[in-house]
Amino acid sequence: MLNSVIAGLTSGGGYALLGLCVVLTYRLVAVVNFAMTAVGAMGAFVMVTLTDEGLNVWLALLIGAATAALLSGVFGAALVRWFAGHREGTKAAVTVALYVALTALGLRLFGGNTTGARQFPNPFDDPVFTVGGVVVPQSVLVSLAFAVLITLGVGLMLTRTRLGLKLQALSERPGTAEVVGIPAPRLAVGVWAGVGAITMLVIVLVAPRLGSDFGALAGLISTALAVAMVGAFRNLPLTLAGGLIVGCLEGMSSSLDSIQKYQGVVPFLVILVLLWWRSRREVWDTAHSR
Amino acid sequence: MKRTFVRTSAIAAAAALALSVASGCSDSGGSDGPIKIGAINGITGLFQTPEVPKAVKAVFDEVNAAGGINGRKIELVSKDDAMDPARSSQAARQLIKSENVVALAGSSSAVDCGVNRATYSKEKIVSVPAIGVDPACFTSPNIAPVNPGPYTLTTAMLYYASETLKHDKVCIAYTVLPGSGGGIENAIKEWEKLTGKTLAHKNLAVGQGDPTRYLVAIKNAGCQAVAYNATVGPWFQQAKTQGMQKVDFILAANSYSDANAKVIPPDMNAYAGTEWQPYTDPTLPGNDRWSKIVTSNNIQKTAFSQGAVMSADVVVQVLKGIKGDITRESVTKAFKEMKPINYPMVGTPYVFGPGNEHNPIKGSQFVKAENGAWKVLPGGFTVPAPKK
């Protein structure tokens, strides 16, 4: 059991990164982006397709990230242009449609789970240490470090810089932000593009652990949303913790025979419990809900 | 509640429906019109096998060019069910009622058997699927696929691990689809009965996400060989990280693809059990005919197209043996009374027969991943048999 929990924890860094991407988009542009991992997977597959053709890995990574940034930017522009005044639910529904379309396109372009498996570069494969029979490779530490970097970096940027302030204004009151002279649409598209590129890097980093075909990688959105829920879509450090919690729960559930069959439900159970917990608090705190 | 986006994910699944293929009405095929054979294939949707109806048609075209059967031509009527149960049942009704097909051959759908088994029994029509996917394909009175299917294949994989590779600690790590009942459990019991051995570790609930937790459990159990049927890429990446280079992983037929051979790291031991002669080597016994048909008709070379050619060949042979009128009744009767057909592309002879469950093809030919490709191992088909 302890081994399984440790094994689960090693995937926590990757899950945390996925959750952080969701929270990042939500905090910066106030959209729950269901198409996020599909966009990242698209960039990642452009990258492996190019490396398979013999292109240099770094150049391919750059082109892949640029593709994801461009795609995400286009989606962002569409949302800003046509759905700016709509409710969050509507915007989320638009991204669900984009997710379905991108997944269908990706499966068509890159193949399904048997024909579309690809070898992703795994530069951080060397073992660092062993705990209770579980080999911990560098990639686990790299994922965790990247997650901490995003948590601290974005946290500081939002609270300590002028750009951060503008971004917060844009996310919370886009109309007012524009009135006071913040170039809202341009900034929003920039944020979308940036988040797209970061998501692509995250997908490439987690691919050797979490999926080698387009469907599996695009489908990581369900885990990402579960993790983001832990941080209530706002709190970056809690989201980081959420990744570790989900990993830990997965490890634990796979080691207990009685609940092994239902382990796929774990992330959704986390979502349900948290939704219930939050709505329970709102009875006392309705003034703050929007 | 502030935000209730979660439920929205359900929309995703529903949105993927494609347009249905409209079918024209045609004559019901008397005793001198064409002999109509139906097939339900996944062409769109999650389980896509477009090469299957093409290969079946290619076989029928060949027979027709040589004069047909008793002067009558064979016509394939293929319907796409897009892995949608409603469309699958509609397709079966259309084929039986409107198209008046005499039998089904070369079906390749992930839902057909489960959805339509009762219809086939009620209408007294037989189906010889190119690929039996769901468990109902192997447990129905009027369905007998030309592939071993996941259950007998699992027995063969475990048998290969314990008897050919001679490992004492054999384990299983499987993703078992809901609704497949005790099929895999029975396959394990069959292996236990044949070999007198028991599994060192069993996990039939391998899920998505990081495979490390399953691999660590396998490592702790000291497994020397592991039968495995889920996603290949991350599994082998992480098995390598966990230092499991000495474990023999035996993959099910669904993992036998060129793409998967490429994602297995060179120092890992990966075998795969195939359902027909490995399609990657056209010189193997029985593969010559299949290879000729798919190459000359420009059809993708896949294991599924092997099943397609075999099911078409089986049907043609049975039809040729019918004396008198070829009708649904005479075809069903011929299948139920047929003599076994030796078909070198599989491990055991094909026979339909009168029983209530059919799984005639047993055994598997094993291949090993070497330098990014599958290498056929010597020794031919491994057909599980009791120890002498």
Automatic annotation (TrEMBL), chain A:
Where found in the cell? Cell membrane
Manganese among keywords = no
Q: Which GO terms describe its biological process?
A: amino acid transport
Q: What is the recorded membrane topology of this protein?
A: Multi-pass membrane protein
Instruction: Provide the transmembrane region boundaries.
Output: 6-24, 31-51, 57-80, 92-111, 131-158, 187-208, 214-233
Organism this protein belongs to: Actinomadura spongiicola
In its UniProt entry, what is this protein called? Answer: Branched-chain amino acid ABC transporter permease
- Show the CDD domains listed in the entry: TM_PBP1_LivH_like
The organism that produces this protein has a lineage beginning with: Bacteria, Bacillati, Actinomycetota, Actinomycetes, Streptosporangiales
A single GO cellular-component term from the record reads: plasma membrane
**Signal sequence span per UniProt?**
none
Any one GO MF annotation of this record: transmembrane transporter activity
* PANTHER family xref list: AMINO ACID ABC TRANSPORTER PERMEASE PROTEIN, BRANCHED-CHAIN AMINO ACID TRANSPORT SYSTEM PERMEASE PROTEIN LIVH
Pfam families of this UniProt entry?
A: BPD_transp_2
TrEMBL record, chain B:
Q: Which UniProt keywords apply?
A: Signal
The record's Pfam families line, in alphabetical order, gives: Peripla_BP_6 (PF13458)
Q: Which residues form the Leucine-binding protein domain?
A: 34-372
* Signal peptide interval: 1-18
Annotated SUPFAM superfamilies: Periplasmic binding protein-like I
For whether the record's keyword set contains Metal-binding, the answer is: no
PANTHER family in the cross-refs: BLR6548 PROTEIN
Question: Which protein family is it in?
Answer: Belongs to the leucine-binding protein family.
Q: What is this protein called?
A: ABC transporter substrate-binding protein
